[in-house]
């Protein structure tokens, strides 16, 4: 029944533009389309190359295609328009965008620079309905799913920014606004496009998808036979506290999420990352660390401790530095692999949803 509910919700929230976005189409779908147009098979490969290797922004720029074919493409498809509303650059090199969409909604995308390469954090939904009490993404609720092409366009836009520097997007994290596993089909289509060897060709092991624990689609993802990394937003070591912080826990209780994690590990042999946002005086006490370590004993996992970003609309405060280190020490002492996330973009409202929340507030005035 839950699977049907998720599928029904996904269909209800899916967005259908007047013309399909060209980025929504896989190479195989483009091959089928060009065949229907009476074009030779190699044309689809040329189109795909223009989209992902040359990264043009219009069909007219596809100069090795015959003019009639370019006209057909313009009649049949549109490019995703991401209008830059706001661009903020941190002292650490992090760049955060607020992009406007076709239908006047807005989404956030972040480029993070690491010593091992450039990572892009993408959004999968306009808003979010998960309701995590420490997150700005859920302010205003969920408006709709993004199409796979709208998710793709965020990475292409980031790569265009890096092109003049001779750099490339080396990794992707699907940790922006929204719940990827409530937009499962579009998220999976996006992942297939990003890893295609004739496209951006980003290695599967350089991509991480994060979920709040949508159990049916966690199980489905385990069966996909990919090398893509899975992260779970856990944020508490037990049902009661997790339900207070994450209302989604009432739909998919903690024990069911943990069972799904064990299934994933058993099925794939891959390590899971648990994301744990530390909130001052709420979930960051030594007893919470002890309980979390007990729950995770024996699991192939890694805990990513995240000092929570201050969100003006929420009442939570950051965990003191010494308490963060103590939490980490307890996990390590109990043989749970853990790291403290290096903060990026702290000076530019880097928490998910903050830019969009400010934009919505300004529009409402």
Automatic annotation (TrEMBL):
Classification via NCBIfam families: rRNA_mod_RlmN (TIGR00048)
PROSITE patterns: RADICAL_SAM
Cofactor binding: number and manner: Binds 1 [4Fe-4S] cluster. The cluster is coordinated with 3 cysteines and an exchangeable S-adenosyl-L-methionine.
Binding site for S-adenosyl-L-methionine: 178-179, 210, 233-235, 309
Radical SAM core domain boundaries: 114-347
Catalytic machinery residues: 108 (proton acceptor), 352 (s-methylcysteine intermediate)
Catalytic activity: adenosine(2503) in 23S rRNA + 2 reduced [2Fe-2S]-[ferredoxin] + 2 S-adenosyl-L-methionine = 2-methyladenosine(2503) in 23S rRNA + 5'-deoxyadenosine + L-methionine + 2 oxidized [2Fe-2S]-[ferredoxin] + S-adenosyl-L-homocysteine; adenosine(37) in tRNA + 2 reduced [2Fe-2S]-[ferredoxin] + 2 S-adenosyl-L-methionine = 2-methyladenosine(37) in tRNA + 5'-deoxyadenosine + L-methionine + 2 oxidized [2Fe-2S]-[ferredoxin] + S-adenosyl-L-homocysteine
EC number: 2.1.1.192
Top enzyme category: transferase
Keyword Metal-binding on entry: yes
Protein name: Probable dual-specificity RNA methyltransferase RlmN
The protein's required cofactors: [4Fe-4S] cluster
Annotated source species: Cohnella zeiphila
Record carries keyword Nucleus: no
Alphabetical GO biological process terms: rRNA base methylation; tRNA methylation
Lineage of producing organism: Bacteria, Bacillati, Bacillota, Bacilli, Bacillales
